Amino acid sequence: MIVSWSGGKDSALALYELQKTKSYEIVSLLTTITQDYDRISMHGVRTILLEMQAESLGLPLDKVFISKDITNEQYERKMWEVMAKYPAAGISSVVFGDIFLEEIRKYREDNLSKIGMNGIFPIWKMNTAVLAHEFIESGFKAVITCIDSNFLDKMFIGRTFDEHFLSELPSTVDPCGENGEFHSFVYDGPIFRQKILHTTGKVVLRENRFYFCDLLPLQNNKTAPCPIICCGKQKPTMSPLRKQGAGAKKLDSRFRGNDKYCFHNRNYLTG
User: Fold this and answer.
1) For 221-243, what is the mean pLDDT?
2) What are phi and psi of 146, to 5 degrees?
3) Tell me, what DSSP letter sits at residue 155?
4) Domains of the chain
5) Measuring CA to CA, which residue among 76, 106, 109 is closest to residue 94?
């Protein structure tokens, strides 16, 4: 199976839950990259940091490049081309970090069924407050890379996802950001062989709504080589280096990119 990987905490938790069962073979991570920016779509994280994650996880990475102005039709055609190779290789499942958005899950499953694949949702219907605290208690470390200013103040961008962060979230915001209120980058935890060293950079406002915090990679200790795959073509890695949450909101069609909240580009494979 492959893991839909956004680099954030929900996909990390989904992978963690699978690894604990020791019952599944993970073949690859799959991530959508906005080619114009060379960053993980919606999360705004540099591709080099994504590659460092994959290297530390010891998993291949399949990158799908899309344009920032891609239409729904173009996106679905692109994903169809990429996904068609998996069933032929004997891969039948895609893992997602979705928690309670029913419409998103149905969309993913409907599209996967067209090519004979199915979705696996390891953290589905878990209580998001419990899940957020378990993420921290399990030793994961994450930084907030994007926030929606319709839900959160600028003060939340660039912060560590910890107990203090959770204690200051407004009651209207889901503790896991499941409605798209915020996105994260996981840089350490039990699934990683090494911490992803980085520092925070500039904070910018896009579309007069989304704040992004740039993360800059730092020199990392070398890890064992791990193949990076870009749309089926291998290239070298970079060596330096529990029940439904309350308050689910209606999906906003203006969300874009790599995320599970996206219905502008209908991204049903990464998030």
Assistant:
1) 35
2) -150, 140
3) G
4) 2-235 (3.40.50.620)
5) 109
